[in-house]
């Protein structure tokens, strides 16, 4: 009985630590306002250059609510059917004192222009003609609003990935924040009591000709038409530990992580797009571009490093819950701890070891259901929606911005 009470108290404490960390690191109302202003600054520069009908859409973590104060600002530039290249847009920005460190990347899969806003220091990535990112943004935003546990879980995993050196081109795994976000969503789609629906199910309640920026709003308005899900009472910490355990024992070589279908699919059973089958060590299917593997750049060594990190995080979280460790979440979970020598039960250290089936040892960690009150927390993006988007200040925003957010 004492052990049970201790685990409940530990979960509440860890959940509160997670929420406090997110509150500290998340974008605040002023940060959103600053980013909206940068969009306006870029549009003014382009209008002066002759693009009078252009629109600048922020997307990514700024809009889907999982960004941090130091996150890059992703922008989609709609030139209204103009065929101008990234090189020309980069040249226009180079002649503007508001932006520095301009760099055109025309040969990327999605051509972009990189720039830094001089006054704020915010890094901007400007893309053209590729609206899939707008759909992805609205989908993630919907997931975060659908259940209050989704957003803090995603943000903690993203922050953990950064501290562990898993994320970014210079990281040991070269995993993207977008990939980590989708891995969290995929996990929440296929746990015994799922929290999120598959994209395939979501599309059944949307209109065919819907604009990407309206995707989240439409899903929220019609969510009562979605198939009912089993009630899930897991705490944030339960879900966090389950996430690490799930992907440590995942059979990446055999399976595809599919957010579109909301479940794991055998590689041999799933042909992506036009007879495309990924042979990469990790296959994470984009939910809207089904023939695109988001983890295509990961090699076998990177996969091993990632699985070692998942193993370590799972062990630490379990020890925190059991009371074996007395340190804080930050001290145990967010501090890197590499394996100087192979550990016997880590599948990342021993790639030839058979992977553990999902949920095989669930009873070890969850001997009985624990109903723990959810932390009441309104994310900053919702505060922003309430305080800015839905009040008179919104009417003072430029017309392009009101059009994008659906205001008259």
Concise synopsis of the structure shown:
The protein is an alpha/beta fold and 408 residues long.
pLDDT below 50 for ≥5 consecutive residues: which ranges?
1-9, 354-398
Mean of the pLDDT scores? 79
Number of helices: 15
How large is the radius of gyration?
22 Å
Question: What's the end-to-end separation, in Å?
Answer: 59 Å
Helix content: 40-55%
Give the H and E element order: HHEHEHEEEHHHHHHEEEHHHHH
The fraction of residues assigned to DSSP E strands is 5-15%
The description of the largest β-sheet is: 5 strands, mixed
Label the structural class: alpha/beta
Work out the number of β strands. 8
Shape: globular
Neighbour order of strands in the largest sheet: 1-2-5-4-3
Report on this model:
By secondary structure, the chain is α/β, with parallel strands linked by helices. 43% of the residues lie in helices and 10% in strands. The strands form two sheets. It has a five-stranded mixed beta sheet with strand order 1-2-5-4-3, with helices on both faces. It has a three-stranded mixed beta sheet with strand order 7-6-8, with helices on one face. The protein is globular, with a radius of gyration of 22 Å. The model is unreliable at 1-9 and 354-398 (pLDDT under 50).
């Amino acid at each position: 009985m004492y052990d049970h009470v201790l685990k409940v108290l530990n979960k509440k404490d860890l959940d509160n630590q997670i929420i406090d960390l997110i509150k500290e690191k998340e974008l605040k109302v002023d940060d959103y306002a600053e980013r909206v202003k940068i969009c306006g600054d870029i549009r003014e520069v382009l209008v002066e250059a002759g693009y009078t009908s252009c629109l600048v859409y922020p997307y990514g973590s700024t809009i889907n609510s999982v960004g941090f104060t130091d996150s890059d600002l992703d922008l989609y530039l709609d030139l209204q059917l103009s065929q101008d290249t990234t090189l020309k847009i980069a040249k226009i920005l180079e002649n503007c004192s508001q932006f520095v460190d301009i760099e055109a990347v025309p040969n990327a899969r999605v051509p972009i222009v990189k720039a830094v806003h001089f006054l704020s220091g915010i890094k901007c990535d400007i893309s053209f003609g590729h609206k899939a990112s707008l759909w992805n943004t609205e989908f993630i935003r919907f997931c975060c609003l659908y259940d209050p546990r989704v957003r803090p879980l995603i943000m903690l995993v993203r922050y953990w990935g950064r501290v562990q050196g898993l994320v970014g081109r210079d990281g040991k795994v070269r995993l993207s924040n977008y990939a980590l976000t989708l891995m969290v969503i995929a996990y929440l789609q296929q746990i015994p009591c799922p929290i999120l629906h598959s994209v395939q199910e979501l599309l059944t309640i949307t209109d065919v000709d819907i604009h990407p920026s309206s995707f989240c709003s439409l899903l929220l308005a019609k969510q009562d038409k979605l198939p009912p899900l089993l009630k899930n009472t897991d705490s944030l910490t339960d879900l966090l530990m389950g996430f690490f355990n799930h992907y440590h024992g995942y059979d990446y070589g055999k399976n595809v992580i599919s957010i579109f279908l909301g479940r794991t699919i055998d590689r041999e059973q799933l042909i992506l797009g036009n007879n495309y089958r990924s042979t990469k060590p990790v296959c994470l299917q984009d939910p809207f571009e089904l023939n695109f593997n988001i983890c295509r750049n990961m090699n076998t060594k990177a996969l091993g490093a990632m699985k070692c990190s998942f193993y370590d995080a799972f062990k630490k979280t379990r020890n925190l819950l059991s009371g074996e460790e007395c340190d804080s979440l930050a001290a145990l979970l967010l501090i890197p701890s590499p394996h100087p020598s192979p550990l016997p039960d880590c599948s990342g250290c021993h790639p030839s070891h058979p992977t553990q089936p999902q949920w095989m040892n669930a009873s070890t960690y969850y001997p009985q259901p624990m109903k723990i009150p959810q932390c009441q927390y309104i994310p900053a993006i919702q505060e922003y929606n309430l305080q800015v988007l839905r009040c008179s200040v919104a009417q003072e925003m430029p017309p392009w911005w009101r059009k994008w957010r659906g205001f008259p």
